[in-house]
Design brief:
GO terms for molecular function: guanyl-nucleotide exchange factor activity. By secondary structure, this protein is α+β, with helices and mostly antiparallel strands. 36% of the residues lie in helices and 20% in strands. The strands form four sheets. A five-stranded antiparallel beta sheet has the order 2-1-5-4-3, sandwiched between helices. It has a five-stranded mixed beta sheet with strand order 9-10-8-11-12, covered by helices on one side. It is globular.
Length: 448
C-alpha cells in the first residue's frame, strides 16, 4: 500500500520541472536552437558521456505462505555504499518499485517448462520530476524441468531502446552460461561512456570456452528517434486511427492502450509519445501499468497508460471521465470521445494521412531506422506548418527575457481551421512549457 501511494504521487508529478528538464539542450547543443528550426530540440535523456546505467537488477518470483508468488530483487549491481540519507531513501523507493513493473501482470504464476523471452520497458518519475527508464528482459533460466521466469532489468536515465535491447541480448546469452559471467560484462559497460549519436563504443568481455569477445554498441545518428519503434505502431493500427490518437494526445486527453504482450504496450506507447516531438507529454505516463496501479484510469487528469488486455472488462466498468481506449490486438478504438475526426485541421490531416499510407504501403522496403525517420518527418512537418512562426512572436526585453505574444501568434495563422485548432493547442501544458523554454532561449547574437 505504501509503495502504491508513493508511485501514484510520483507518477502524477510529471509536471513542469520534468518537462523543462526534458526540453533542455543536450551536450554540444546550444540552448538557442529553440530559436532556430522547429524540431531541432534534444532531450536530456540522450546526453553523451554519462554512465550507460545506474543499476542492473534481477527480479525473481518467490513463493509466499499463501501459495502465490511475489517478485523480489535477488541480485543488484552495483551495490551503492556510503549514500547520504536522502539518496538512500530514494534508492530504497526505486528498488521497491522495480519488481512491480518487472512483473506488472500480477502474482498468478506457476512453474513452467517453456517461455519465449520478451523485452519491454517502463518509466518511473522521481519526486524531483526526473525520469528513469527500466529496460527489461523476461526469460526462463536454462535448466530442466519446471521453473519460474525471471527479469533482468537495467535502470538508466538514458533513452535508447535499441541499444539496451542489444545489451540485454548479451546478458541473456551469458545467463544461459552462468550468472558469474554477467558481472564482468556489466562492469565493462559501466566503465564505458555513453557514446555520442552515430558513435560506437566497444566493450571487451571474456566468456569461458569462447575467449575474449569485442561487443560494439552503436547509437543511431538521429538521437531523438533512438527510443522509438514507429513500425510497431504502423503494424497494429491504421494511419487513420494513428491520427485520431495523435489528435487526442495533442489536446492532452486520457489515453488507454490495451494489449496482452508487454513489449507491444511499451513500444506502441513510446511511439505515440514520440509523435508529439518537439513537444513533450507532460502528464502521467505509464507504458505498462502494474495491477496495483490500475485505478490510475480513474484519475481526472490527463494520462497515457498501457494495460494488459485481460483487464479490459474491469477498465470498462470503472467510473472514468472521457477517455480514448485503443485495442492494439485488434487494431481498433474501443471507446472514443467522438470528435477525433474533427480535431486536426482538415488539409494538414489529409497530408499526414497520405504520407503515413505511403510509408505503410512501402513498409517492407524500409529498415526500421528509415521508417522512424520518414514518420517523424511527416509529424515534424505538421508542427512546422502549424507553429513554425512562433519565434517571430516572442517580444524580447532589454534584460534578455522574452514574452510570447499569443494573440498575435494565433492571428497570424491565415487558415480558419488551423486557427481554430491552435486556440485549443496553445492552452495545453505541453505548448506552455515549450514556449516557457523559448522565452529563455534568445540567440545571443541577436542582442548585439
Amino acid at each position: 500500500a505504501a509503495i502504491g501511494t508513493f508511485l501514484r504521487r510520483s507518477l502524477r508529478r510529471a509536471g513542469r520541472r520534468e518537462v523543462k528538464d526534458g526540453a533542455s539542450a543536450a551536450e554540444n547543443t546550444p540552448p538557442q536552437v529553440l530559436q532556430g528550426k522547429l524540431g531541432e530540440r534534444s532531450s536530456v535523456f540522450y546526453s553523451a558521456g554519462q554512465f550507460f546505467f545506474e543499476y542492473l537488477v534481477v527480479v525473481s518470483l518467490k513463493k509466499m505462505p499463501d501459495g502465490h508468488y511475489e517478485p523480489k530483487i535477488t541480485y543488484q549491481f552495483p551495490k551503492h555504499e556510503n549514500l547520504l540519507k536522502g539518496q538512500k531513501e530514494e534508492e530504497e523507493r526505486l528498488l521497491q518499485a522495480i519488481p512491480l513493473f518487472c512483473f506488472p501482470d500480477g502474482n498468478n504464476w506457476a512453474p513452467i517448462t517453456e517461455f519465449t523471452s520478451e523485452t519491454f520497458s517502463f518509466v518511473l518519475t522521481n519526486m524531483d520530476g526526473s525520469r528513469k527508464i527500466g529496460y527489461c528482459r523476461r526469460l526462463l533460466p536454462s535448466g530442466r524441468g519446471v521453473r519460474l521466469p525471471e527479469v533482468f532489468c537495467i535502470i538508466s536515465c538514458l533513452g535508447c531502446f535499441g541499444l539496451f535491447s542489444k545489451i540485454l541480448d548479451e546478458v541473456e546469452k551469458r545467463r544461459q552460461i552462468s550468472m558469474a559471467v554477467i558481472y564482468p560484462f556489466m562492469q565493462g559497460l559501466r566503465e564505458s561512456p555513453f557514446p555520442a549519436p552515430g558513435k560506437t563504443v566497444t566493450i571487451k568481455s571474456f566468456i569461458p570456452e569462447s575467449g575474449t569477445e569485442l561487443i560494439e554498441l552503436t547509437r543511431p545518428v538521429d538521437a531523438h528517434l533512438e527510443h522509438v519503434e514507429f513500425q510497431a505502431l504502423l503494424q497494429r493500427l491504421s494511419p487513420h486511427l494513428i491520427l485520431h490518437i495523435f489528435a487526442s494526445a495533442m489536446l492532452e486527453r486520457r489515453l488507454i492502450f490495451l494489449a496482452e504482450e508487454l513489449s507491444v504496450l511499451s513500444q506502441c506507447i513510446h511511439a505515440v509519445a514520440a509523435l508529439l516531438y518537439p513537444f513533450t507529454w507532460a502528464h502521467t505516463y505509464i507504458p505498462v501499468v502494474p495491477e496495483c496501479l490500475l485505478d490510475t484510469v480513474c484519475c481526472p487528469t490527463p494520462f497515457m497508460v498501457g494495460i494488459q488486455m485481460r483487464h479490459l472488462e474491469w477498465v470498462l466498468e470503472q467510473p472514468m471521465e472521457e477517455a480514448l481506449i485503443v485495442d492494439l490486438c485488434e487494431g481498433k478504438i474501443i471507446r472514443a470521445v467522438g470528435d477525433e475526426e474533427e480535431i486536426l485541421p482538415g488539409k494538414l490531416q489529409k497530408e499526414m494521412l497520405i504520407s503515413l499510407n505511403r510509408h505503410t504501403n512501402n513498409n517492407n522496403m524500409h529498415t526500421s531506422e528509415q521508417v522512424n525517420t520518414l514518420v517523424s518527418e511527416a509529424f515534424v512537418h505538421f508542427f512546422v506548418q502549424l507553429v513554425g512562426h512562433y519565434a517571430s512572436h516572442i517580444k524580447w526585453g532589454r534584460s534578455g527575457s522574452g514574452s510570447f505574444q499569443e494573440r498575435a501568434f494565433c492571428k497570424a495563422i491565415t487558415s480558419k481551421s488551423c486557427r481554430r485548432f491552435m486556440k485549443k493547442f496553445v492552452k495545453t501544458n505541453m505548448f506552455s512549457l515549450f514556449i516557457e523554454e523559448a522565452e529563455k532561449s534568445r540567440i545571443p547574437q541577436e542582442g548585439k
